[in-house]
Amino acid sequence: xxxxxxxxxxxxxxxxxxxxxxxxxxxxxxxxxxxxxxxxxxxxxxxxxxxxxxxxxxxxxxxxxxxxxxxxxxxxxxxxxxxxxxxxxxxxxxxxxxxxxxxxxxxxxxxxxxxxxxxxxxxxxxxxxxxxxxxxxxxxxxxxxxxxxxxxxxxxxxxxxxxxxxxxxxxxxxxxxxxxxxxxxxxxxxxxxxxxxxxxxxxxxxxxxxxxxxxxxxxxxxxxxxxxxxxxxxxxxxxxxxxxxxxxxxxxxxxxxxxxxxxxxxxxxxxxxxxxxxxxxxxxxxxxxxxxxxxxxxxxxxxxxxxxxxxxxxxxxxxxxxxxxxxxxxxxxxxxxxxxxxxxxxxxxxxxxxxxxxxxxxxxxxxxxxxxxxxxxxxxxxxxxxxxxxxxxx
Length: 394
Fold this sequence. Notes:
Keywords: Monooxygenase, Oxidoreductase. InterPro entries: Bact_Lucif_Oxidored, Luciferase-like_dom, Luciferase-like_sf. It comes from Rubinisphaera italica. One of its GO terms (molecular function) is alkanesulfonate monooxygenase activity. This is Alkanesulfonate monooxygenase. By secondary structure, the protein is of the alpha/beta class. The chain has a single domain (about 1-390), classed as Luciferase-like domain (TIM Barrel), CATH 3.20.20. About 45% of the residues lie in helices and about 15% in strands. The protein is built from 14 helices and eleven strands. The chain has helices at about 20, 35-55, 75-85, 105-120, 135-140, 145-160, 200-210, 220-240, 260-280, 290-300, 310-320, 325-340, 355-380, 385-394, and strands at about 1-5, 60-65, 90-100, 125-130, 165-170, 175-180, 195, 215, 250-255, 320-325, 345-350. An eight-stranded parallel beta barrel has the order 1-2-3-4-7-8-9-11, surrounded by eight helices. The chain has a two-stranded antiparallel ribbon with strand order 5-6. Strand 3 (about 90-100), helix 4 and strand 4 form a beta-alpha-beta unit. It is globular. The mean pLDDT is about 95.
């Protein structure tokens, strides 16, 4: 069982009337609202929080890629990953991930990920994803090409890591006469690959077929997440093996305080800032992005998306966030992890406007009073070699 600190790096200095004046926190939200002086403070604070995660015993840190958004002002997670590679010594650095269809050529991903892997001494987890609706909107890319481009870019990236160069690549979307990246990854044959999905059947089947790790979309009702993880495990079975627990992950907001009452008193307004302002106007699935069957299935689940939740009771019932005393959070998380059957927990310990002092207290209480219990009950993390061997022999 592995525990990661995931950071969205949100921009959280929005006007009080943001919800009334603006339709969305994505793509078209005016960048005149951005204050780079405050951004300087935020970026450095958020990096400190990720570095602190190593000091207090987390197994890894996670960052992701977002464009033209206040939800996460993190257009280049690889820049942050390279800083973390230099400033940490032990934790895994999970970049989950790069939106492959938008990199032209995608060998740029192979190069930058290899750099981070070499700088960190082999601690990179290489996440790949299709990109979401905001990215296709921001870059005016036809979403009907998403999967085809992703497949070709993924194949080319892995080939660039594992095949001696130079070689030629003549695909449908990219034609490269000399593929010969320098450097090559520290980890051989290549860093672990995580596919962060948008919960379509197509993505789970791809991850299962290639024996990669799979992360379902966060912020949905617990029943939908469970179905997605079961769908992934079923796809692994169809490919002739049993999914390793640490081949799956659960991303969830977490807040721990001294008592249940204090936890909600300190956390609730920051969580609802996130729900009402930072998730506002999110369009995850552009037309033509997934099969009609997947869109129909996900469309039903969107009725219980976190952005549509309005009460604390709904949050607790749906498992959208783990909030409470150390005793409450560890019992809840133990039950959820066992029910989901996941081997990676990606905890959001900062959300919305949650300030630095409460974020640090939250992380510290979790590390000191929740993490040891969960490790004892759920098991120590498997080594990279154990995971690799398990997938190879199943």
